[in-house]
Amino acid sequence: MEEILSSFGGEVNISPEKIFSEILRDLPESQKRAFIESMPLKVMADPINVNAAKIIFKSKLTSLLTAQELKIAADFYSSNIGLKAHRAIIDAEIAVSESLN
Predict the structure, then answer these.
(1) b/e for 31-40, b at 16 or more Cβ within 10 A?
(2) Quick check: 78 and 55 in contact, CB under 8 A?
(3) Rounded CA gap, 56 and 97, in Å?
(4) Is the model's pTM score more than 0.70?
(5) Minimal CB count within 10 Å: which of 1, 11, 65, 84?
């Protein structure tokens, strides 16, 4: 489990504008700009802190799964088939997201 959590990176802040630009990459530049400029200043000014995201992620997992369930999940997702399944799930989610855009 620690390996999964550590894969999120260290003290990394990501610009919301960069995230929105990537999500909206297929829109014409004028529409992309209009969308980004319509976002509240608070949203655009606050970078996304990866450490904060890791804390929320870990807290949510530990509130939903018992220690035994976390161990079983960690054992599975650190195995070859678990890593393959995890990558497949991510690829499938990306494919769905791209098809809905």
Answers:
(1) ebeeeeeeee
(2) no
(3) 23
(4) no
(5) 11
